[in-house]
Inverse folding.
């Protein structure tokens, strides 16, 4: 069968058309492997082999598309291709191609991952480290990549987070606010000795907040309760909000 036309596509794929007008798509590596550019001829056996081998390259283009938005680890690509119903043998072949072409450099991946987390998220070093471990990145690679997230950077991010929360939670008592900050910063993966030190510096005027919250609760609960029960209900709600005693 004679090949009458080749057309270059994206991600290294090539479309070729036979003289009977049948169209096929194969990766350029296969075009070169079977010497199709020079001979411009193909028999049925070659075509069958190319179609079988091209499934690997189809999965390869799927993986490349998955990697367009950001770098991916071997673990992420493996999981993604399994979701596309690829078997382990084909996935291993795809990973080999990607590795050969320099797409699976663990050091570059970890550095990019840490950089993106530092710039685009509020994640702390402990959470970033845990996420990299989930992606099966080598411990030494993780340690090296995280070296840029030093104590000075971490403290600055903690301070920025606290300042933002102070602006957003002006009606919280000092106890409730500090509990929230401690929970948030622990969940985000910051070191306790750093965020506890910053939280201890926070000063909130609970007396003013107490009076404001008391009046709001009084207006609401006095429609339903009176006397001692009203006072008890108000104090119970205030306690739940972190106000431990009336100033």
């Amino acid at each position: 069968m004679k090949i009458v036309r080749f057309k270059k596509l994206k991600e290294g794929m090539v479309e070729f058309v036979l003289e009977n007008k049948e169209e096929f798509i194969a990766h350029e590596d296969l075009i070169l492997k079977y010497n199709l550019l020079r001979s411009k001829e193909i028999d049925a056996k070659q075509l069958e082999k190319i179609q079988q081998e091209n499934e690997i390259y189809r999965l390869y283009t799927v993986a490349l598309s998955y990697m367009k938005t950001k770098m991916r680890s071997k673990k992420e690509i493996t999981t993604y291709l399994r979701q596309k119903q690829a078997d382990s043998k084909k996935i291993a072949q795809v990973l080999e191609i990607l590795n050969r072409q320099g797409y699976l450099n663990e050091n570059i991946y970890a550095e990019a991952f840490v950089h993106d987390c530092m710039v685009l998220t509020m994640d702390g070093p402990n959470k970033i480290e845990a996420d990299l471990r989930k992606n099966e990145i080598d411990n030494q690679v993780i340690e090296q990549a995280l070296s840029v997230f030093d104590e000075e950077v971490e403290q600055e991010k903690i301070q920025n987070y606290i300042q933002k929360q102070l602006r957003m939670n002006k009606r919280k008592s000092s106890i409730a606010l500090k509990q929230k900050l401690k929970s948030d910063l622990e969940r985000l993966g910051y070191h306790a000795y750093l965020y506890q030190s910053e939280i201890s510096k926070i000063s909130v005027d609970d007396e003013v907040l107490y009076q404001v919250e008391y009046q709001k609760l009084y207006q609401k609960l006095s429609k339903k309760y009176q006397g001692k029960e009203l006072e008890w209900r108000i104090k119970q709600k205030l306690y739940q909000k972190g106000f431990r005693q009336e100033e």
Remarks:
- The CA atoms of residues 239 and 245 lie 8 Å apart.
